[in-house]
Design goal:
Blueprint lengths: L12 E3 L1 E2 L20 E10 L7 E5 L9 E7 L10 E7 L4 E6 L5 E2 L13 E3 L2 E6 L15 E11 L2 E12 L4 E10 L18 E9 L2 E10 L5 E6 L6 E6 L5 E7 L10 E7 L4 H5 L14
Parallel strand pairs: 1-19
Antiparallel strand pairs: 2-3, 3-13, 4-5, 5-6, 6-10, 7-8, 7-9, 7-11, 11-12, 12-13, 14-15, 15-18, 16-17, 16-19
Length: 302
Amino acid sequence: MNPTPRTPSEGLARRLLAYPAWAAGGAMGLAGFEAEGAMVCMDLDLALTPGFREPVFFQLDINGDGQNEVGLGVGTASNPDMFGNNGMVQAGGIFGAQVAFTEPFPLGVPGAYYGGDAIGSGLGFSSAIGTLALSSAGPAGGIGAWWGGNDAYIGVMFDIGGATHYGWVHAVWDPSVNTLSIDRVGYENTGAAAVVPGPDPYPIDLDITVVPNAGPEGAAMDLRWQVEAGFTYELERSDDMNTWTTIRTVTPGLCGEESFVDTPPGESTGGPYYYRVKRSSTSLLWLALGLPGRRRRTQAGG
């Protein structure tokens, strides 16, 4: 592979979809979070479609640290299968990262995972390149969990600052047009903890609007997200996705929208900066009333 390196998103400020903090073991303090870490996800809009007999390759930087972890490739097989499809899709860990495999070589197949599955130390990982799908009339045709068209998650293991982290890449392959789409990646930012792929049932959607020439430091970031009464929210900022600084903490008494305008230090140098929101898993309001904690998403205006 000779992929084109690129991070999942470009620009001055990057939008992270942060999960509520979740337990890595131990009890939660009344006013605190269950764990310092959380699942961090980023949305992508990536479609890989090869030209005629010309494969296309790509690299993904899952945590935005400048080091790519996953290589992807889409090409064509020599003979179409019974449905007329002749696509071939491969993936593998690169630059020290590894992908979870389900079958050994010579036909190594990266594992396909779904909501509720765990991606962690119990899986078999390799830095080799394996086949997600191969549609061919040849003897190796019809292999891989993505064969025939499917969406699933690729399990990934990589290193951040000497600590092992687990994550996933959501891949959708359409064999009829020979296109692999990647719409989301996620990883657990504390290390060592297994991750469960899939959309969070209680997401926090953080909207970022750049406000140009807002002050002496240059542009500012207008950050907004929906809140529920009694939950504690921490808005955090980072310039490397490893070290995070809390810039706003709020425990609203009413459901609605919270907003904060941030002017990052040194923003005039061009960033980029990353933002995320963490939410306590138990509402202090409902605890005070003697009711069980409520965990549902409040829609705008709710």
